[in-house]
Amino acid sequence: MKKVLLTGFDPFGGETTNPAWEAVARLRGRRYEGFEVEVRQVPTVFRTSLRVLRQAMLEVRPNVVIGVGQAGGRSDIAVERVAINLDDARIPDNDGEQPLDLPISEDGPAAYWSTLPVKAIAAGIREAGIPASVSLSAGSFVCNHLFYGLRHLIATEFTACRGGFLHVPFLPAQTIGRAPTPSMSLEHMVNAIEIAAMASMRYGKDIAAIEGRLD
Amino acid sequence: MKKVLLTGFDPFGGETTNPAWEAVARLRGRRYEGFEVEVRQVPTVFRTSLRVLRQAMLEVRPNVVIGVGQAGGRSDIAVERVAINLDDARIPDNDGEQPLDLPISEDGPAAYWSTLPVKAIAAGIREAGIPASVSLSAGSFVCNHLFYGLRHLIATEFTACRGGFLHVPFLPAQTIGRAPTPSMSLEHMVNAIEIAAMASMRYGKDIAAIEGRLD
Amino acid sequence: MKKVLLTGFDPFGGETTNPAWEAVARLRGRRYEGFEVEVRQVPTVFRTSLRVLRQAMLEVRPNVVIGVGQAGGRSDIAVERVAINLDDARIPDNDGEQPLDLPISEDGPAAYWSTLPVKAIAAGIREAGIPASVSLSAGSFVCNHLFYGLRHLIATEFTACRGGFLHVPFLPAQTIGRAPTPSMSLEHMVNAIEIAAMASMRYGKDIAAIEGRLD
Amino acid sequence: MKKVLLTGFDPFGGETTNPAWEAVARLRGRRYEGFEVEVRQVPTVFRTSLRVLRQAMLEVRPNVVIGVGQAGGRSDIAVERVAINLDDARIPDNDGEQPLDLPISEDGPAAYWSTLPVKAIAAGIREAGIPASVSLSAGSFVCNHLFYGLRHLIATEFTACRGGFLHVPFLPAQTIGRAPTPSMSLEHMVNAIEIAAMASMRYGKDIAAIEGRLD
After folding, report:
1. C210 close contact with B: CB closer than 8 A
2. Which of B48, C13, D122, D162 falls between 20 and 30 A from C153, CA-CA?
3. What EC number(s) would the UniProt record show (chains A, B, C, D) (predicted)?
C-alpha cells in the first residue's frame, strides 16, 4: 500500500495548541483509494525537527510527505510553493534557539520548489468550499526549515518521494482575546489536508491555473 | 412554552447564500430547557422586512427575538448593542430601493439599545471557543433597519418581549476568489446563535465585563 | 470673525504621542476665508475632558467645534456621524478611571447625530487625495464621550453652535513594531482637518451621497 | 563619482499612477555624500523590463541598483530579501502577456538573495519614523521578474554591482473607493528610498537583527 506521511508541529509561541497537529492527528491511519496515511508530530525546534522527520521517512518509506504548520493571521489554507535556505527566527524555538541569518544546508541551493501539485491542491480544496491559495513564502522559522529540509532529503536521499508543505490558520478558539483575527474550523483543516493528500497521489504534474501573486 | 424567534435574511449584494439564514434555518423547531425556537426568513428589503417581522411576532408571540444578518469581512460574531434611526444604503436592497439619509421612524429616538444581555452572550459564545465581541454599529442598511424596527416594535407594541441582533461572518465558501477575507464555519454560527438564545432566556440583566471599544 | 474650535486629546494607551493633537496643534491661529481657528488640548479623561471643552466653548464662542481623536488601526479619516450615550471603557483613561456601562448623561437621548455636513466633509477630504469615510461608531471610550458631551452642550447650552468629531489613523512612526498596521502622514491629517473646518463653515446642510455602511 | 541606479515601473493593473515611479522620479540626479543617483522608468512587461534594465546598467555603470515596485495592500516598505526563478502572472502585463509557471532563466538557480544590506535598510527606514520590514516574497509578477533578472545580471555580467528590490504601498489617493486599504505618503516613500540608497552604499555586510518571519 502506498503511504502518505503527514507531519504537524507541537505548540509554540505561547500557544497551548497547534492546529496543524490537531488536524493531522485526526487523519492517523486513514485509508483512501490507493494509499494510507501515517502521521507524526515534530517538535518546533530547528535541526531536531529534521532528525525526527528523517527517522519517520526511514520507517514509513512514504510516497508523499506533507508537512503542516500554523500560520497565525492567515484566513485560508496556504499551499506553499517554495522553501528557502534560511533560518532567521523572530522568536526562540521550543528549545530556546533563535538562529539569525543562517543557511539550513551549507551546500544546498538557495531554494527548493515543492514537488507536490500545488495548484491542483489549492483548486481541490476550494472546490470543497474551503478557501485556499498558493503561497510563495513559508517564512524563515521552523516551518520553512522543515519544508526546506524535507526537500533536501528528497533531493539527496529519498529521491522517489515527493513532498511539500501546507500552512493552516488559527483555530477559532485561538483568536479569542486577539484583535480581529481570522480563523478556520478544525473540520475544514482536516478536510483540506485530506484533499491535499489525495491530489498529491493523483496528479503526476500540476495543473495550469492562475494562482500567481503580484507581490 | 416560552418562545425565541430567530430571523435570517435572504441573500443580497450578489451573493447566492446568506449565512445568517443558513444558520438560523438549522435551528428550526429546536427545543431547549424552558423554551423552543421558531425561525423566519425575512427579505433584505427596507420596510417589507419589518412587515414580515411584525407578522411573525403576532403569530409566534415570542419572549425573545434575535435578528441575524451577514457582516461580510468580520472574523467573529458581532453582538450588536445599538440600532440607529437611519436608513442610508450603500447598495440597493432586494427590491431595488436605495434610501439615503432617511429616518426609519419619523417619531422614534435617534437610537435604541439591544434589550438582550449582549456581554453575557458574547462571553458565552467565547466560552464555547468561538470568537465574539460586542459591536457598536450594525451599519445603516437593512440589518440595522430590522434591528431598529424590532426595538421600535418592542417599545411600542410588544412591550413584554426582548430583542437584539447578531452579525455573522461570511461562510468559508463565500470568501473564495476574494482577497484574503475571514470566514466562519456554519457549525460555529449555529452554535453561537444557540448560545445567544439560551443566554437571552437565562439572564434578566447583563453581566459586567470589559467589552468596550476605543473607536 | 467666525470661529472654529478644534480639540485634540493628549496621548493615551501607552502611546507617547497623539496624532489628533499633533495635527490640531499645527492649525493653531490659522485664518481662512471667513473664519479663524482656535485649538485646545483636552485630557483623555472622562468628565474632565468635557469640563475643559465647555470652558473653551465659553471662551471662544465658536460657530463650529470639531473634536479630533486617534483611531489606531484605521486606514482613513473617519467622519463620525453618531455619538452614543454610553461610557464603556476597554482600558483606563489617563486618570485611571474605567467606567463600564454608564450613561454619559442621565437624561440625554440614546444618541446624538453630528450637526456637521459629514458627507460633504468626507467627499472634500477625498477630493484632496486623502482617504476618508463616514463612520457610524466613535466607540465607547473618551472620544465618543467628548463627541456625545459636545452635542449635549450644543443641544442644551450652545444652541447656535454646530459640532462633530473626526477620527484619525496612527502616524507612521506609531506603527513600527506593531503587526502590519495602517497609518497616515501628519501632513495629510492636517490637511483633512482643514478641509473639515472649511466644509463645516460652507455647508448649511449636508450633500446627498452614497456613504452608508452595510454592517 | 559612485552611482546608485533606481528603477520604478510604469502604472499597471488599471492604475493611472505607480507610486514606485513617482517616488523614484523625485530622486533624479540627487547627490549624496560619495554617490549620485540616476533613475530610469521600466515598463511593467516581462522580458522588456529586463532589456531596459540591462541597457541602463550598461550606460550608468552603477555600484548599486535598487528596483522599486508597488505592493498594493501593504502598510509598510518591504525590503525584499529573495527573488525566485518563476514567472506566474495573476494579471496580464502591460503588453498583454500572462506567463504561467515559467522559469525566468532556464539555467538560473531557483532563487537569488538580495546583495543589499536588507536588515540595515529596514532599520534605517524605521529610525526615520517610517514603517518597514524585511519581506521574503516579491511575488511572481513583473516585480519579482525584475528583481530576479537584476540579480542574474549581477551574477553573470555586472559582478562588481550590488542590487535588490523595495516594495512600496499604495499612495493615499489610490486607496479611495477601495475597501479599507493602507497607504503611505509620497514624501515617506521618497525618504525611505533615499535611506535605502545611503545604507546600501555604507554597509559592506548586513547588520544582525531580528527581522525573520514566522510564516
Report:
1. yes
2. C13
3. 3.4.19.3
What pTM value is reported for the model? 0.96
Q: Which domains occur in chain B, in start order?
A: 2-202 (3.40.630.20)
Chain C residues touching residue D77 (CB < 8 angstroms)? none
| Low-confidence spans in chain A with pLDDT less than 50 | none
- Rounded Cα distance between C113 and C136, Å, is 10
CB contact under 8 A, D172 and C181: no
Cell numbers 534605517 correspond to D124
Catalytic, C59? Answer no
Q: Of residues C22, C152, C161, C167, which has the active-site annotation?
A: C167
The residues of D annotated with a catalytic role in the active site are 80, 143, 167
| Nearest of D34, D35, D11 to residue D22 by alpha carbon | D11
Residue indicated by cell numbers 444578518? B69
Please check the confidence at residue C61 and state whether its pLDDT lies above 90. yes
Whether residue A110 lies within 8 A of chain D, CB to CB, comes out as: yes
Q: Which pLDDT does position A196 carry in this prediction?
A: 98
Sign of CA dihedral B100, B103, B105, B110: positive
Q: Which of A129, A182, A187 sits opposite B75 (nearest CB)?
A: A182
pLDDT confidence of residue A162: 98
Q: How far apart are CA A148 and CA B94, in angstroms?
A: 51
Q: Does residue C204 carry a pLDDT above 90?
A: no
Percentage of residues in chain B having pLDDT higher than 70: 100
Q: Hey, how many other C-beta atoms are within 10 angstroms of the C-beta on B10?
A: 16
Q: Which chains touch D (3 or more CB pairs under 8 A)?
A: A, C
Is C141 close to B213, i.e. CB distance below 8 A? yes
**Phi, psi dihedral angles at B212 (to 5 degrees):** -65, 170
- For the cut 90, the answer to whether the pLDDT of residue C156 exceeds it is yes
Give the CA distances from residue D72 to residues A136, C181, D34, D39, D195, in Å, rounded to whole numbers and listed in that order: 17, 14, 33, 22, 21
Tell me if B111 sits within 8 A of C110, measured CB to CB: yes
The Cβ of residue D142 has, within 10 Å, a number of other Cβ atoms equal to 27
Residue A10: per-residue pLDDT: 97
Q: What number is the average pLDDT over the span B56-73?
A: 98
Which residues are D16's β-sheet partners? none
pLDDT per residue as tens digits for the range B110-169: 999 999 999 999 999 999 999 999 999 999 999 999 999 999 999 999 999 999 999 999
- Interval B162-173: pLDDT, tens: 999 999 999 999
* CA atoms of C177 and D122, how far apart (whole Å): 12
Q: Among residues C116, C105, C45, which one has the least CA distance to residue C81?
A: C116
Nearest to B80 by CA among B46, B103, B105, B113: B113
Contacts of D75 in chain C (CB under 8 A): 75, 175, 180-183
What integer is the mean pLDDT of C110-129? 98
3-state percent breakdown (helix, strand, coil) of chain D, nearest 5: 30, 25, 45
H-helix segments, chain D:
19-25, 48-60, 118-127, 142-156, 186-202
Cβ B20 vs Cβ B31: under 8 Å: no
CA B214, chain centre distance (Å): 23
Chain D residues in contact with A214 (beta carbon < 8 A):
13, 71-72, 90-91, 139, 141, 143
Model confidence over C133-155: pLDDT tens digits? 999 999 999 999 999 999 999 99
* Any A CB within 8 A of D71 CB: yes
Contacts of C185 in chain D (CB under 8 A): 184-185, 187-188
